[in-house]
Amino acid sequence: MEKTINRLTGLLAGAALLGLVTPAAHAADTLKVGLMLPATGTYAKLGNAITNGFKLYVDENGGKIGGVAVEYAVVDDESDPAKATENANKLVKRDEVDVLVGTVHSGVAMAMAKVARGTKTLMIVPNAGADELTGPLCAPNIFRTSFTNWQPSYAMGPVLLDKGVKKVVTLTWKYSAGLQAIEGFKESFTAGGGEIVKELTLPFPNTEFQPYLTEIASLKPDAVFVFFAGGGAVKLAKDYAAAGLKDSIPLYGSGFLTDGTLDAMGGAGEGLQTTLHYADGLDNAKDKAFRAGYQKAYGMAPDVYAVQGYDAAQLLAAGLSAVSGKVDDRKGMIAAMEAAQIDSPRGTFSMSAAHNPVQDIYLREGKGSANPVVSVAAKALADPARGCRMK
Ligand code: PHB
Questions:
Q1: 3-state class (DSSP) for residue 225
Q2: 142 and 158 co-located in one domain
Q3: Ligand 1 neighbourhood includes 147 CB (under 6 angstroms)
Q4: Is the residue at 234 inside a domain?
Q5: Cα of 245 from ligand 1 centre, angstroms
Q6: Whole-model pTM above 0.85?
Q7: Fewer beta carbons within 10 Å, N or C terminal of the chain?
Q8: Structural domain for 52, as ranges
Q9: Is the CB of 128 inside a 6 Å radius of any atom of ligand 1?
């Protein structure tokens, strides 16, 4: 119904251009949000946390974002890039969403971004780190409230150099998130004199780690750096400990290794140091309120994915509030989103010119169920956004 009204409004706007009626961007009845996230597979828990975070903000604001009532259309993307274009098109063309929110997996998000660019649909990425989304594929209508794959890993290079680590073996899934995370680490680690002894990869989402652990044991590097997340991260940490490597060759990673996964690791994550744009026990009022609200609503502690979902809603609110809820005032919304200072549970962040958060990266250490802060590994770190030409 609302869409029919929107179409009529479009006709009226056309008539206005012809001088037939006075143009006026109107406040929409609803904001239709297309949530394209994984509900199944190794990243299912991550998708659920993003949904919870997004809905927490909406529920805290009486079911509204920027004063506009929210309606949802939902798709399980299964973290499957082969189904991504069709899934994104379903939301844009069948459900006629005003904004696409998704997703977790970099490859799926890349396909979504192509649909968003082609149809000029507003898109907010609440996780996927694909460097291209705010690099060569950057666009006025694409924003991210999470990170680039480069960001958290780049911050780990100097941390390991400071510890005297010289030779590192890397291990990850062979798809863009893993490969770009390793590249980010490698860039800062080798620039400071570190050496990557070997780069090991396995296909996503395989978790048969044994042959790689055997190779690591024989290579005897000073440390291992990995990118894994979700169910795969749990299995890796457990297998690493069971292989007897945890005490002899320290394991490091971007913080996805231990965020939302420590309980399932059953002790294998204890003491693991990681770098990420969120941590437990941050000393800011927003985080305290967010954590209390999340615990109350869902009966569990939030993680970085929940924060990114919450902030996707906050970013939309910044855009919509600035245009008094006029969903059709795209230019005004985008300008306000670009200028927004997001009061995030991670600490306040701003948007880079490429529409990616400029944010602090924390060094954290696994303790029980939490990842408390050890130090700030990189202050206000901006992705280099190589190849972004914002049109
Ligand atoms: C990604 O595919 O970009 C990705 C997935 C899971 C994470 C982080 C990045 O935790």
A1: strand
A2: no
A3: no
A4: yes
A5: 25
A6: yes
A7: C
A8: 26-147+278-355
A9: yes
Q: Is 255 in the pocket of ligand 1 (CB under 6 A)?
A: no
Q: Within its chain, how far is the Cα of 364 from the centroid?
A: 18
Question: Mean of the per-residue pLDDT values for the chain?
Answer: 94
129 lines ligand 1 (CB under 6 A): yes
Any atom of ligand 1 within 6 Å of the Cβ of 235 = no
Q: What is the CATH number of the domain that holds 169?
A: 3.40.50.2300
Of all residues in the chain, the percent with pLDDT exceeding 90 is 92
Please check whether residue 263 is in contact with residue 22, taking contact to mean a CB–CB distance below 8 angstroms.
no
- The reply to whether ligand 1 has any atom less than 6 angstroms from the CB of 256 is yes
Give the separation between CA 365 and CA 189, rounded to whole angstroms.
Answer: 20
CA-to-CA distance for 46 and 259, rounded, in angstroms?
10
In this prediction, residue 391 has a pLDDT band, given cuts at 50, 70 and 90, of: confident
Atom of ligand 1 nearest to the CA of 79: 2
Structure confidence by residue, pLDDT tens digits, 153-187: 999 999 999 999 999 999 999 999 999 999 999 99
What does residue 387 show for φ and ψ, rounded to 5 degrees? 90, 0
Q: Residues 207, 235: contact at Cβ < 8 Å?
A: yes
Query: What pLDDT was estimated at residue 13?
Result: 44
- Give the total number of structural domains in the chain: 2
